[in-house]
Amino acid sequence: MAGYIGGIACDIVSGNAAALKQRVERWELTGIDGYGAQLLGKGDSPFAFTAIKFGSGAAVDSWFANLEALQGTIVTIVDDWGTSRTSLLIERVLQLQKSVAYHQGGARGETTVEGVKTN
Q1: What is the SS3 assignment for 95?
Q2: Which of 74, 79, 69 is nearest to 89 (CA)?
Q3: What span, in angstroms and rounded, lies between the C-alpha atoms of 51 and 30?
């Protein structure tokens, strides 16, 4: 089953995005026993999805360029199981790993998309 990253079709999408969790900042002061703390709100939800595309070398290059263009945007990612995860900020698209895939039409491209859940 295929998946999607920000509307871009991928032959394989695997990974997970954790739910937002309460964040706490802790500090210490010289001469004072114990710790201070404050709640920062929910966050701390990094994700990494692996995406794979089969096709001609040019099609894989174009697919990768489209994924790179998503950096800095908030998208929905649908994995191979049809699970949809929304409000994901893509911070990085890692380097393309391209190899030969004779049985799938010429080339196989693989990359990882990283970021954080925003809400």
Answers
A1: coil
A2: 74
A3: 49
